[in-house]
Amino acid sequence: MGIAEGRKVWLALALAGTLAGCEDGGLQLPGFLSADDSAAAAPVTGGTTELVEVDVEAPEVFQVTEAGLWDGRPSLGGVWVAHPDVDDPERVIIRNTENGQFVIGALFRRERESVGPALQVSSDAAEALGMLAGAPAELNVTALRREAASEPAPTDATAPEAVLDEASGGEITTAELDAAPAMEPAPAPAAAPTLAPAPAPASTPAAVPASASPLDRPYIQIGIFSVEENAGNAATAMRANGLEASVIRQESQGTTFWRVVVGPASSTAERDADLETVKGLGFTDAYFTRN
């Protein structure tokens, strides 16, 4: 028997002795190789919660459904309507009940007149709602309030589970270990796949918050559109003026609409400069938002 063969025999005997110690309880496996069911049942938590702002209708603050009129003259101030029953300016959603179009705008107070509809409509609002000059249309005007809502941020929780399943004791059985002496090279490659994937899950979640803006509200919402093409045109206008703009599709009460936001800004100075540019392009109702 050669020296190499002698070493193999001693290695096999040493391994068999070690395995026998495992079976008798004399040698404990490392925690990540233990067959403890409690470790396998431990939940893997990696989800985060992100706060977002949403517009919520507040009919208790203000709501009317009646005829509105655009007199055909151009008006300043962007999208707005005016009504005699308004106490304070409000942010509202204006719906044309005849064609289903809607737009977000401002609500102001006007003096009550004896003739004509009480609801006065600006030229920009009339265009967004598909109204013709001098032709009254039934409008629903409802006040809006901004509320914070939590959304679970998607995380890759399956990768750590897969690693734990591979390293759990359920797969390391006595029968599998007893077969090791028959295939002498088996113990060497067995350690490599177990240790190599371990650092991978730790690096994946760490990269998520790296790109977060230091500002609480790094975005500027320039408007909400009921027509996707109009939202795309607004975003194109922003990009043409050197701003980073995005179109976000959302739904509310069964209605689909598109938000256009600019950002994210990396500093207060950058955000203020972007807001000035946005308002200079005619979007005077733009405001800061979290997303």
From TrEMBL:
<protein>
    <submittedName>
        <fullName>SPOR domain-containing protein</fullName>
    </submittedName>
</protein>
<feature type="domain" description="SPOR">
    <location>
        <begin position="212"/>
        <end position="291"/>
    </location>
</feature>
<dbReference type="Pfam" id="PF05036">
    <property type="entry name" value="SPOR"/>
</dbReference>
<feature type="region of interest" description="Disordered">
    <location>
        <begin position="183"/>
        <end position="212"/>
    </location>
</feature>
<feature type="compositionally biased region" description="Low complexity">
    <location>
        <begin position="203"/>
        <end position="212"/>
    </location>
</feature>
<dbReference type="InterPro" id="IPR007730">
    <property type="entry name" value="SPOR-like_dom"/>
</dbReference>
<dbReference type="GO" id="GO:0042834">
    <property type="term" value="F:peptidoglycan binding"/>
</dbReference>
<dbReference type="InterPro" id="IPR036680">
    <property type="entry name" value="SPOR-like_sf"/>
</dbReference>
<feature type="compositionally biased region" description="Pro residues">
    <location>
        <begin position="184"/>
        <end position="202"/>
    </location>
</feature>
